[in-house]
Amino acid sequence: FSIIFFMEIFPNSFFAIECVAIFAIFTSQVWNMIFSFYQSIIALPKELKEVSIVYKFSFWQRFFRLELPYSIPNLIWNSMMSISSGWFFVVLSESIFFANNHIVLPGLGSYIGKAILEANFTAISYSIFAMFCVILLHDQLFFRPLLVWSEKFKFFIDNNAPYYSSWFYNLFNECNLLKKIDFYYIFMKFFMNVNFIFFLKIKNKFKLEGFYTFVKIVIFCFLLFLIYFFLKNIIIFEIINVFYLCTLTGIKVVLLIFLASLVWVPVGVFIGLNKKLSFFLQPIIQFLAAFPANFFYPLIIILILSYKLNHDFWTMPLMILGTQWYILFNVIAGANSISTDLYYVSLNFGLTGYNLWKRLFLPSIFPNYVTGVVTAAGGCWNASIVAEFVQWGNDTIISTGIGSYISNCTMLGDFSRIFLGIFVMSLYVLFLNRFLWKRLYNFSAEKFLVN
What we know:
The chain is 78% helix and 4% strand. The chain is mainly α and 451 residues long. The longest helix has 38 residues, at 236-273.
């Protein structure tokens, strides 16, 4: 659908396909950061909120002086995961199969896609080396300086924890001119001085609840039109079959998230509590997370074909390979936020084993864990479109699920069935958000956060 949309805006232009790739990569990154910021907002300590009320902060003052600074450490950690998700979709968005056409954009992603289609291990090894270099540059020139800079925004100071260091940050920090510039302060000051009174007047003059209701009605009517337009020629039995396929994929997603949690929650808590170990492993985990899971698909495909394994079961790990890191990163961030004093107090009171996990570890990491689970589940739904329809050279492995249904319809250019697959998947995701993830968020806010 994004191809059609951008082709209408930029007809007969290759720029439209570039916009499709940018759109796919952007949407794969942005939601994780939104969830991270939301989790930081609901986790704001009560005393900080009271200070903002005492000093009579306006909406924008509270945002730039309290909410945004408090969320920066988590945003930086989750932006690493967003970069990882972006690399995954670079491979998909630069090599697009659509309506029996193969659209290729210049870039590393299309190079990897061609290497996979040709089953060329040499080309894949070259791309792995190039990816390693790019990720290393990302870490040294971008993320590591950001981690050093984010130390000033931590809510509490742990003197026993090692501080991040960066030669690139120190290089700029030694410059006398840059030393006198606080970029965040300039950014905040600029937006604070912009006249937002107009927006506040609109907010006071109109009732936003009525406006939101009107928008919902318009969206609902437009959705009904799309349903009629695309599904009028599809029989009811196929619609029931698509719901069945989506149920199978949903079961896979929930099962994979559960298994990944059993593995990465204990590992993440162990790493997060050991500050020196966390400091050492952070770039290694970042590299593993940023490495596109697509690279590992050929190995699993070869194993499936060689040993004639069950497609539906053994393609499931492909869905979680790239998204499991959301859980690990967020658990590490939650464990890092546990005060050393609080940890030692718990030990002094004799809390060990199950009681220590129940009273300290799980309550401390649960809000971050929920953020990781929600984003990991979303990543699994996205990855199912690729993992359930995998190609390696002349071999294609198709497993039963909504992902393979959407992929097959996309290659054929069957818009009605593409819409049906996306619509049913969206219904399932909305159902899970409403009745599972939202309740987990509310539960974590009520039980484990001080508001």
